[in-house]
Every structure is written in C-alpha cells, then in structure tokens.
Amino acid sequence: MIKNILWDFDGVILDSMQVRDYGFRKIFEEHTHEQVEKLIKYHRTNGGWSRYVKIRYFYEEILGQNISEKEVLALANKFSNIMREELIKPEHLIDDSLKFIENNHTNFNFHIVSGSDENELRFLCKELKLDSYFITINGSPIAKNKLVFTVLKDFGYKKEETILIGDSINDYEAAKVNSIEFYGYNNTKLMEQSREYIESFDEHQLR
Hints:
alpha/beta, 8 helices, 46% helix, EC 3.1.3.18, HAD_sf, hydrolase, HAD-like_hydrolase_sf
C-alpha cells in the first residue's frame, strides 16, 4: 500500500519548461543561438538536474571554458529572479495533478524533491498556496537522489510504501538508486521505466 509520495515539481505540478527555456536564453543572451540551443536540448533531456549543473555544463562542455563557483551562483541568482517573476502565475499549474494533491494531501504523506533551487521552490509554493500540502519541500543544489535518501531516512518511511512521481529520466534514476518505485507522468518516453505510468490522476488509482 502506498503511504508516501515524493513529487517532482517542474513538469509534474507546474508546467514550467517553456518559462525555464526562456530563463536560460535570457541569462545567456550574449552567446550564439547555436550554443544556447545546445544547452536547451541538454536542459530538456535532463529536466531533473539543477540549474547549477546546467550552467556549469554550458561553460565547461559547450563553451570549453572554466567557470568559478561564484560565477555559477551569480548566473543562478539571475535565473532565479526571472523564474520568481514568471512562475508565480497560477496558469502554469497543472490542473490534473493539482486536483489530486488538493483532494488527497491528508490521505498520503506528500513531499517535494525537485531539481529546482530550494529557496525559489519554497517561494513559489508559498505564492501559489501549495506549501500547506507538503510535509517538506526540498530542492537543489543538493542532488535529487540525496534528497530522496534524506526524506526516507528522516521520516523512517518504508521503501515498499513510498513512490516517486516524476517526468524525467533523472527522477527514475533517483527512485531506482533509493530502491523505491517510480511512477512516470507527463512524459510518455518514461513508460518503459515506470512500474506504472500515470496518464491522468482522474483515471489512475494509487494504492
């Protein structure tokens, strides 16, 4: 029986991909279109990874340049300011998952484990009036597999009673390394990796 649900945020609760695409294009607008689009492709493929990883990847792998931790943090803060302004708009919420969360937050133990910056994530959840539904809201720069491990450890959850719902291969890998079940959502490419794939929460019985 499922008692504990760990939620990814982007693409599962909030439809934020296009806004985050815009954010990366904006902070790197001085670089060439070709270079930035390589990052966008990497960003979309690795939706569960943090902006810190993606910014470093852009410099080290695409530009072939070194970047200091201070420079990474400055760009991440610039990105976060754009996100805070755009993503507090309720129209970005995914109605299907939101209704399930609103109707079931007393039936399960809900936690968020996200690749988004933790401070930004908590700000967005508060602004969007989501924070009361979740016991903890956890994000980067800590890696998602470690976030999952910490929730399991701190709350003493049984792995067979815990699942992770996500929309990226990184979510699947975080669930796998922690030996909990992964339920794919909002990305049909994950059907093969998912024990169960959620087409719609209205039609899917979690038990």
